Amino acid sequence: MAEEIVRPKPSRALGTPLASTIAAITTILGLIVLAWTILFVTKGRFLKGPFERIVAAQTHRQVKVAGDFQLYLNPFNVKFVAEGFSISNPEWAGHGNFFEARRIDSRISTWSLITGNRRINWLGLIDGHADLQWDKDGKRNTWTFSEEKGEPLDLPVIRRAIVQGTMIRYVDPRMQIEAGIRVQTVEAKDTQFANAINFDGNGTVRGTRFTMNGALLTPNATVAGGQNKLKLHAEGVRTQIDVSGTLPGATEIEGADLRMDMRGQNLADVFALLGVAVPDTRGYRLTSALTKQEIEWRFTDLTGRFGASDLAGRMTVAMTQPRLMLTADLATRTLDIVDAGPFIGYSPSQSVAGKSALVQRVGGTPRILPDAPLRVEALRNFDAKVNWTVRNVRAENLPVSNIKLGLTLDDRLLTLDPLNFSLARGTVSSEISINARRQPVFTEYDIRLSPTPMGVLLAGFGVEESGTTGTLKARIQMTGSGNSVRDSLASSNGRIAVILPKGAFWTRNVQLSELDLGVFVQKMFEKKLKEPVQINCGLIGFTVRNGIAAADPILIDTEKNVMLGRGGFSFKNESIDLAFRADGKKFSLFSAQSPVGINGYFAAPGISVLSPELIARAGAGLGLGVVASPLAAIIAFVDVGDAKAADCGPVLAGASARAQRTEKGKPRDDVGRGTTAKSESGKQSGAERQQQRKKFLGIF
């Protein structure tokens, strides 16, 4: 056999795959260079038709370029030039164009187009017009080109710009805003600025006219891309606002470093433009740092004054849906009582400083309950969470301090929890719920006064401090319907109870009320007015029905007397008709025993010491003195001392009159159903109750 010849296989060149890769890359680069060269030479003018069709298809709008068109890389930025450029409005926005310009000349960062950051390094805009509109439902706008829900306006970052003859129109039916702004670049010489973009305009917000003007100032040091200085001045609704600082870019508000100075006659005017209801104020001036982070406008380092009060803290307005969200942490060192009035419904324009700061007149009658209506419609526009602390309250004879307020508003449900403050050396703790989801507004009150030294409390209200060990505590639980505090209380139902535990009081403060004239005169001549009188227990209770409070009961047990009260007061017209009498436990030669009346109004109470019963007894005494002897005249004022001491258990529990007992455990026959009982069982017939109601509550 012939020997088989084995021939080696031809070897492949090791560089062939690398050469192929290099060849492919070179081809691609060559094509890119060729395309770039063609575009650069032709300026991309041949892309005008495809540009109009593609953009129109993506935006669902009519897109036209009436004049010159350029689109190419120059050398790395995308250069876009269009003359007679326009994009139409969507059908719902009416006729006209969303945007049009006589000429646009721009340099767009190629890398930003890849990453989606949208940065324009240069923009020249001549005779532009932008029509920025929201629809009436707030679901669509003219600048969101997709069929989805309209997005907030998000302009590309513009590093440098020259703008001439440009108008911007903005319309938002929900916020009731319509504005027109003119923008014009002013070339500056021999200054630190290369140019300034000035703007001015006017419009209306919720029917109120405003004007504005300002400028974007670009320092030479940041021409290549950096911070832009902003100056803005706006006037309207009796308010002036100045904003100054720096922006990251000419159209970039996010992360701006700004300062705001706002002053005016009423802070509520400004918030009303946002549809936010806040209490009225007197003249104010506030300054703060201002910046924007996503949907939040943040006001930090806030300081200033309103009226005669100071204010500091921080506030955030978040443009959330369906309602904007207002949050704030505020602090006040000194709050003037006149400035505090509007927070509970008083008008600062109708109040005057001093004792009458919270007193107004209605038809010649002094009134103290506030009647400013709650702005229910405005509560639909926002939610809120506010914390506010007040160290001192400047008010004559009103010992209030250390206020702590927590306010939460959630879809028209307004909660004040806590609403706490110091009263003398006691603490008032409150939880108040105002439900504006119901009409009329439904309010629940729960107000508690912790045990408070009576002497300190009296001293705080202008009465000479008694130095007593006596204390008191109280609670108010009521509900009412109405769109103001006055209307709510005028329809209220619930209970009011003031409890006096065991303690000592000055004779001067107690004995006059008891009208034990013999003891008082004796101590007056012996100069023992400061000798304490022992209070065993006491309850000043009222049951409130449909705005009328009836004593239920008024019962104070002292060492020597039992003080009883009957009558009541009305939240409807703020009138008072109360009668007090003291029955002695021991024999007293001179004792009035007859009722002492408290009448008048909340704002102007009066005391009637010479009640008809007392005058009748004095007449009887005078008659006896004439007919018999001077000694007989004293008989009419003798107190035989048969008052029944109270069981302090039901008294200290704040129980109603029906649950009260004597110290021997028997039902009391001298209190009942808000009036003084006439029967031994403590019950009255309907005719008797009606007769007493006419006598003691006749003013209702």
Compile the SSE list and pairings.
Layout: H1 16-42, H2 48-59, E1 63-65, E2 69-73, E3 78-88, E4 97-108, H3 110-115, E5 119-133, E6 157-158, E7 161-164, E8 166-172, E9 177-187, E10 193-205, E11 208-219, E12 228-236, E13 239-247, E14 257-264, H4 267-273, E15 284-293, E16 296-306, E17 309-318, E18 324-336, H5 337-340, E19 360-362, E20 365-367, H6 376-379, E21 382-394, E22 400-410, E23 413-423, E24 426-435, E25 442-453, H7 454-460, E26 471-481, H8 485-490, E27 493-500, E28 503-506, H9 507-514, H10 517-525, E29 532-545, E30 548-558, E31 561-570, E32 575-584, E33 596-601, E34 604-608, H11 612-627, H12 630-633, H13 648-652, H14 686-696
Parallel strand pairs: 5-6, 5-7, 5-8, 18-21
Antiparallel strand pairs: 1-3, 2-3, 3-4, 4-5, 8-9, 9-10, 10-11, 11-12, 12-13, 13-14, 14-15, 15-16, 16-17, 17-18, 19-20, 21-22, 22-23, 23-24, 24-25, 25-26, 26-27, 27-29, 28-29, 29-30, 30-31, 31-32, 32-33, 33-34
Strand content: 35-45%
What share of residues is helical?
10-25%
The major sheet is characterized as: 32 strands, mixed
Radius of gyration: 41 Å
Unreliable spans: 188-193, 220-225, 351-355, 510-529, 620-640, 673-700
Structural classification: alpha+beta
Number of distinct helices: 14
Q: Count every beta strand, where a strand is a DSSP E run of 2 or more residues.
A: 34
Anisotropy-based shape: elongated
- Termini Cα gap: 143 Å
Overall pLDDT confidence: 78
